Every structure is written in C-alpha cells, then in structure tokens.
Automatic annotation (TrEMBL):
This is FlgB family protein. One of its GO terms (cellular component) is bacterial-type flagellum basal body. It is found in: Bacterial flagellum basal body. It holds the Pfam family Flg_bb_rod. Residues 20-38 form the Flagellar basal body rod protein N-terminal domain. Residues 81-90 have a biased composition (Polar residues). Residues 68-90 are annotated as: Disordered. It comes from the Bacteria.
Length: 128
C-alpha cells in the first residue's frame, strides 16, 4: 500500500539515488591510484527526476505492462574527472570526501521524508 503513495515513492527514489551515488564515490576512492582512471559521478537527483515525464514516468502495476516502470529510474553515471596526476588519474580524494558527506545528507533527508510521511499516516489513523 505505501509503495503506491507518491510521497513514499519520492523518498524511495531519493534514497536509491543516494545509494547509487555512494557506490560511485566509493569506486572513485578505490581507484584513486589507478593510472588513467577518470572520476565519475551521478547526475543530480533533480535532473534525474526532471528527465522523467511526470516525475515518476508511466506507472506499471504488474511486470507485464508495456512501457510502465515499476520503480524510479536509475541515475545516469557520467565521467567528471580531470587529469590531475601525471599518470592520468582524475580522482581527488578531497572532492570525493565532500561528495560522500553530501550523499550522507541526501540519504538522511530521504529517511526524514519517509518518517514524516509515516507520522502523518499514523496521525490520520489516530495511532500517532
């Protein structure tokens, strides 16, 4: 039931985006000394959301529905690294650390949105 409420879909999409971005940042840090590696990042959540027709695209309630998405679209991953090192590596640990902090805040925001929605539902049911 909660999966069909747009409010909770937005919180889920935000948390999914944060998780994907955290994985990309972690991969950048892991390859900080790899020659020729270019840093990557995800497209911002706002751009990912705007790229979909009405925020979440067509709705598919079953896997067999044509052109219906059952969840939020995955964010696009793009190369952002500049060649900072002589070996062609484009990862800067300081920038990746700042991105990791930003991702943590984004994930905390998604959890806060979800909890707020649950509190509203509980209050409307008289159980909050």
């Amino acid at each position: 039931m909660l999966a069909k409420i747009d409010y909770f879909q937005l919180a889920r999409a935000l948390a999914t985006h944060a998780g994907t971005r955290q994985a990309v940042v972690a991969q950048n840090v892991a390859n900080a000394d790899t020659p020729g590696y270019k840093a990557r990042d995800t497209v911002s959540f706002a751009d990912t959301l705007a790229a979909q027709a009405d925020g979440f695209g067509l709705r598919g309630t079953r896997a067999g529905h044509l052109h219906g998405a059952t969840g939020p679209a995955a964010p696009a991953i793009v190369e952002t690294g500049r060649q900072n090192d002589p070996n062609g590596n484009g990862v800067t640990i300081e920038e990746e650390t700042l991105k990791a902090v930003e991702v943590k805040r984004q994930h905390d925001r998604a959890i806060a949105i979800y909890r707020s929605g649950l509190n509203v539902l509980r209050a409307s049911l008289g159980k909050g």
